Amino acid sequence: MPRRVRDPYDVLGVGRQATDQEIRSAFRRAAAAHHPDRHPEDPRAHALFTEVNQAYQVLSDPQKRAAWDRYGAAAFTPGGRAPGATMPDFVDLGSIDGLFGDLLGALGIRAGDRGDIKKKLKLSFEEAAAGCTKTLTYERADVCEECRGDGAAEGSSVDTCGACGGRGKVRFQQALLPVAVERACSRCRGTGRLPRVPCPRCSGQGVAERTYSAELTIPPGIEDGATRLVERGGHRTRPERAPGDLEITVEVAPHAFFRREGDDVVCSVPITFVQAALGGEVEVPTLEGKARVRVPPSCQPGSVLKLKGKGIPHRLRGGRGDQRVQVVIEVPTRLTPKAVELLEQLGQELGEDVQPQTKSFLEKLKGWL
Question: What is the pLDDT of the chain when averaged over all its residues?
């Protein structure tokens, strides 16, 4: 005799006009409240937990929800026939695709995922330029160390799954569609076997969260946004499957002095008016420490001085880029009366002939006016 199917809206406690987000939130609350691990002494907990998952499977699928809204339980009863339908519309209500295990769901793994992980690795400007070795520690799902992947508590046996007969797959017909579909059995998660007493470490899933460390060799000159792939460094979604991959995206922190342009390093250095006019040497920072650069006489604002080979190592050939030093001429903000007098005398002495940019601007201005 077919079992009675409760109204999924009543099970989740939502109205018939509930949005997908409201249904999802109600499911999470109900699943957490009725999880068997929270009620080990209550024999009804597993049945309630399964019922919550069944309700969510129906309401989270637009086709299944429409079938329920139109035909009610008749659309989901083995051998039942919805009004106007020409084929039995049976759906495997034992499926719990809406909940892919507490552990895997907490790690962000959804049903059908390969188990790939994406992580960000932060580097300083100097580490990216010179290259380095970094250790990335992260959490991943892997074969449970206590049960060695069979999902059974110590001393407990593993039986053939009664839902799929040990095949690991079940067949069903989609509501309102006369098409038989085969998919992995959700009760045994496609393994065909069920532990009599689930492993307390992994709750019978065969995989558990573990901490891993990956040692990464960062080549010199790596750029912000570059990615590195660690094969088989991701989650193992099932004990019998190979792990997914670990994809690492590099994030290079900004520097107080430098910015990168290709393989060149650019920095701005302030100099005094006297240094710009007379020339001399100034001390500038480089990736390797301090260096001195010669400022030519009559150096103009915005001039770029070059330090050969002080930039980023080339990735595909030998050698390094250069360091470009942009000159910023600093104007004094506080002048003594004596300094004002001297500057006025200097201005009179210089005149227009030794200030070609000012002279050119004034000539253009006269023509424009």
Answer: 80
